[in-house]
Amino acid sequence: MGPLSNGNTSLLLDMAKAGGLPWDLILGSDVTKAYKPTTEAYLRPAALLGLEPGEIMLAAAHEADLAAARTAGLAAAFISRPLEQGPGVPGAGVATRPWDLSVSSITELADQMGPRLRGCDDPGGAPGRLLREMLRMPGCG
After folding, report:
1. Among 4-13, 48-57, 94-103, 106-115, whose mean pLDDT is lowest?
2. Domains contained in the chain, number
3. What is the residue range of 39's domain?
4. DSSP 8-class letter at 122
C-alpha cells in the first residue's frame, strides 16, 4: 500500500517519515513520468510492479481520479472526506456513483480489504485472485 501522487517522491517520503506512515512503496510522478488523470499515470505503476491493472485498487476521495483509474482498468474505492471543503457543504463526502468499495475512512477500507487479501490466495501458489474477483466474494477466506 502506498500513495500514487502527482507530487514528487522525495516530498511523499518526507510526509511518510513525518507522519509515521507505514507505506510499502511510494510512487510520485517523477517515478511514473505521468500525471493523473492521464491513463498512463495509472498503468505505469501496474507495469512497474509487474501487475495487471485489475490487480490494483486506487482509493481516493476525488471521484474524477477514481473514474480515470477505473477507465484504465483499476478497481476503485471511494473514501469519504465530508470536511475537505469545510463544514456545511451540501453533498460533501458523498459518492455520486457506484464504486467497488465506498468507505468512511482508510481504516474502514483496511478492515474491509484485510480478510479478502489474507484469505484469497490460490492454493497453487499464485499470488492471489484478481482484485475484482475478491471484491465480488462476500466472505472470501
Report:
1. 106-115
2. 1
3. 34-136
4. -
In the predicted model, what is the mean pLDDT of residues 23-47? 93
Nine-digit cell at 81?
Answer: 472526506
Query: Would residue 79 count as lying in a domain?
Result: yes
Angle at 95 between CA 99 and CA 118, to 5 degrees: 40
Q: Which three cell numbers stand for residue 122?
A: 490460490
Regarding pTM above 0.85, the answer is: no
15 part of a folded domain: no
More confident residue, 94 or 116: 94
pLDDT of residue 1: 82
- On whether the CB atoms of residues 26 and 3 are closer than 8 A, the answer is yes
Angle at 58 between CA 70 and CA 9, to 5 degrees: 125
CATH of the domain at 77: 3.40.50.1000
